[in-house]
Design a protein that fits this description.
236 residues; alpha/beta; Spore Coat Polysaccharide Biosynthesis Protein SpsA, Chain A; 7 helices; 13 strands; 26% helix; 26% strand; Nucleotide-diphossugar_trans; NTP_transferase_dom; GlmU-like; transferase
């Protein structure tokens, strides 16, 4: 059973200013509780026993919050106070803490609600290490609430992913939730880099897969998105 997760919480939250002038983005409240707590609740409900959280901006505040809101999960801190490493660099920095088994990775600033199936359990059942290096939770572009981009991926009938072409629209958006194999976390191109490097390698090998999320998903990237999200959560 995949029971370890990485929670990305080190970003500067520039798009969420001015709310992030005095607090880290993961602690901005949506529907009565911090964004991070929404993610932690979903991870705990999905059977995660250990969560590795990277910290940088206002790191002490994030750490203090985690110690009192861990939902019974063991919490390990991946400290990026010295330098913000982006998503790929953050994963490499946390490599030893994540262990040698596949793990979940989730962003702390996207909010998802389960559909007919519990999301992490569904992803576990679909995970096939013989075929996959990563399995991404995607949402159809038409249901990507508060998201303004043109989509990220195309997905074939078997779930294999390819990227959106320049100046085109793709039908699926990455939700910020994925399962990754540790075998991807090798040969970093630099200290600071994006997870896109790992995905590109998996695509070239035909080993990047996706699954469509059946529940709700919200891109909570700006202050303007918060009342929209809260209204949708309140009224369905």
């Amino acid at each position: 059973m995949i029971d370890t997760a990485m929670l990305m919480a080190a970003g500067l939250g520039k798009r969420m200013r001015p709310l992030t002038a005095t607090r880290p983005k993961p602690l901005v409240k949506v529907a009565g509780k911090p964004l991070m707590d929404h993610a932690l609740d979903r991870l705990a409900a999905g059977g995660i026993r250990k969560v590795v959280v990277n910290v940088h901006y206002l790191a002490d505040t994030v750490e203090a919050h985690l110690h009192s809101h861990c939902n019974g999960m063991a919490v390990a801190i991946s400290d990026e106070r010295r330098k913000l490493l982006e998503t790929g660099g953050g994963l490499m920095h946390a490599r030893e803490q994540l262990g040698d088994a596949p793990f979940f990775c989730a962003n702390s600033d996207n909010l998802w609600i389960d559909g007919p199936q519990e999301t992490l359990g569904m992803m576990r059942r679909l995970w096939d290490p013989e075929r996959m290096d990563a399995l991404l939770l995607l949402v159809p572009l038409a249901r990507a609430n508060c998201h303004r981009g043109p989509g990220d991926f195309h997905m074939d009938a078997n779930g294999r992913l390819t990227r959106r072409k320049t100046a085109h629209v793709a039908p699926f958006v990455f939700t910020g939730v994925q399962i990754m194999s540790p075998r991807l976390l090798v040969d970093p191109p630099a200290e600071v880099f994006s997870t896109n490097i790992f995905w590109n390698r998996a695509i070239e090998a035909g080993r990047l897969y996706g699954v469509s999320h059946q529940g709700l998903w919200f891109d909570v990237g700006t202050p303007q998105a918060i009342p929209v999200v809260e209204s949708m959560l309140a009224h369905g």
